[in-house]
Amino acid sequence: MTITLEQALAIAGSAVTAITFLVGGIDFLIRRWLQRHRYELVLTLNQQIATLHNETHNRSAERDTALHDLATTAATLANTTAALATSSADNTSLNGANADLAGKLTEANLKITDAAQRSHAHDTRVQRALELEGALWTQPTMANTPKFVPLAERRTPVVSVLNLKGGVGKTTITAYLAKALSRQGYRVLLVDLDLQGSLSSLFVSTLELARLSKEGGRFLKELLTPDEKGKPGNLLEHTLPVPQLGPHARLVPTTDTLAYAELSETVKWLFRVGGKEKKWNGRRDGRMILRRALHRPAVYKKFDVVLMDCPPLLNLCCANALAASDYVLAPVTPSMKAIERVTPLIKRVLEVQSDVNKHLRMLGIVVNNTRHKGLTDQENDLFLALPEQCLTIYGHDVYRFDTSIPNRVAVRDQEKGFDSENEDTDLRDTFEQLANEFIKKLPGVCRHPDERIKAKKPKTIGGM
């Protein structure tokens, strides 16, 4: 079948119309679909945007919170850092304080240890001293002991009047012998070492002694006590004139207060303490105070004889006397007990001679308080065994003075005070004899008054 052009055009037109209608429908459907889906998409997107906005707001809030927390943390950290810095400074200061405290503690421990050691040393020293008993004062001399000036150089003998028994007349013999020597022109120095001060009270009244004691500085106790710098006193500043004996006689007096000074020096000797440091001082020997004082040219050139009245025991004063003396003169009464004390005395002298003063010697024994001017046969019999005893201990006999001192009322009366104006003639003669014997027993190097008298005589010119 043949289709005409017109039919073909009609068909083509219908087809175009149908296609146009179809395309329009499809376009309409597509548009409707797109419109519907765009709304859903917009709604979804709006929801998502709202969600994102909420999330952004939340994130912003969280960020602000985090920033606030961070700022708070930073502030806390800064405060903590400052606190740590302060704490560190405090710790540094505390460490310094701890170190200083540790140093002080160490120093304190050292002091405690040193104190304990010194205390132990002191305890040991005291214990040793107690064990020594009577040998305490005869221990070997210490370093830098004052020099013992030989008698040949001094020419002034120092004599300790001593017996280890009381009541034998040491003080009486010292006083009367000093008087007899003064009569012959000797310049006599008396030193009262007895704690009772008996020799001092013979020449100085009790009231005067009390007055001088209040003033201070004129007694033996001040001589025994060093000054604040630890230097010994000048003996010449501690003497008193003794007009009862003569213009050239002097006395180093004492009272019962000597006991306190002696106790103090004894304790120092036990602990070996001296000087302003108040600590151990090996150079200080408490037994050498009198040696240091008497063996000075200013002293021994001023006197011809030194007589020391010693206590009847070996204490600090007695040890000082023996350390400074050339001789020991021992009074003894004609009784068995008194004679028995001679050998212990000689033993003590030998101990001192061995370790303290090698120059010390026994000058002799003076018999006191006899019934008559001479010894009776009965009194003489008491001394028969003494030479052999002395020979055994001392190595040779000890000289016994021919002159003996009788038991006279005049002697006992003098104990109340030395009155040279009313002196008993027989008693004076007896002590003159004793003084003559005493002088003969001294070596020829000792100074004699005649030398001084001759030295004072003016030289003549042209035999005029």
Automatic annotation (TrEMBL):
UniProt keyword Transmembrane helix present: yes
Keyword annotations: Membrane, Transmembrane, Transmembrane helix
Membrane-spanning intervals of the chain: 12-30
Lineage of the organism: Bacteria, Pseudomonadati, Planctomycetota, Planctomycetia, Gemmatales
Domain annotation AAA: ranges: 158-362
Annotated protein name in UniProt: Chromosome (Plasmid) partitioning protein ParA / Sporulation initiation inhibitor protein Soj
One Pfam family it belongs to: AAA_31
Key word Transmembrane present: yes
Database matches in Gene3D superfamilies: P-loop containing nucleotide triphosphate hydrolases
Species of origin: Fimbriiglobus ruber
